[in-house]
Amino acid sequence: MKIVVAVKRVVDSNVKPRVRVDQTGVDMTNVKMSMNPFDEIAVEEAVRLKEAGVATEVIAVSAGVAQAQETLRTALAIGADRAILIESNEEIQPLAVARLLHAVIERENPQLVILGKQAIDDDSNQTGQMLAALTGWPQATFAAKVDLVGGAALVCREVDGGSETVSLSLPAVITTDLRLNEPRYVTLPSIMKAKKKPLQTLAPGELGVDVTPRLKTLKVVEPPRRAAGVRVPDVQTLLDKLKTEARVI
């Protein structure tokens, strides 16, 4: 079984993003970048499936600028066998990413694709679902547990009411939630070995995909500062304030 895992280069989760002065986006100057945490979980799960003898090869795929090679090297250090970078300086939006992954799938013919449920930079939570629609494959989102049994994937997924277990015939698309696993610590020997693993670079045009943005960001602003709390003398005053001042989120 061959598994494709999609990874994205994002601002490190420990960094507080800064908005540009002109409000056109996030200031990326000298900002630490890392792998999207949900994608790291996806890579870990794919590698565990390989270590269990269920999968034979894990391929990490990313779309973005040349520096995304560093993110792919991290995936290789975790245990992926090889990597593919679809290099572009364009803003690659979720539908374009799904189309690029679809093109890679047609080339590689994997039996399973694993992605993080969302990226922490835009929180779109769209790519996995769009990819499933493009491929016509069954999907399971927000996976908290994955078992591959007899040519099918049993996925316990988190839903609003608790959890549910679904059975997917392979090939399939799975997106990962936080509780699926705890990614391993990447050791120095693993990092050194990752440098020798193959990393292929492609252009979107080689895959026949147009990545021109379809959506335009009008303005990016920081969320409003949280107002200081106030003391109220009694319950009735609290209720009155909730009725007149509380905002629906």
From TrEMBL:
Molecular-function GO term, any one? electron transfer activity
Q: Which SMART domains match?
A: ETF
The family database entries (CDD domains) matched by this protein are listed as:
ETF_beta (cd01714)
Keyword field: Electron transport, Transport
Q: Where is the Sigma-54 factor interaction domain?
A: 58-242
- UniProt GO BP: carboxylic acid catabolic process; regulation of DNA-templated transcription
The cofactor(s) it depends on are: AMP
Stretch forming the signal peptide: none
Gene3D superfamilies in the record, alphabetically?
Answer: HUPs
User: How would you summarize the oligomeric state and partners of this protein?
Assistant: Heterodimer of an alpha and a beta subunit.
Describe the family membership recorded for this protein in Swiss-Prot or TrEMBL.
Answer: Belongs to the ETF beta-subunit/FixA family.
Sum up the protein's function in the record's words: The electron transfer flavoprotein serves as a specific electron acceptor for other dehydrogenases. It transfers the electrons to the main respiratory chain via ETF-ubiquinone oxidoreductase (ETF dehydrogenase).
Q: What is this protein called?
A: Electron transfer flavoprotein subunit beta
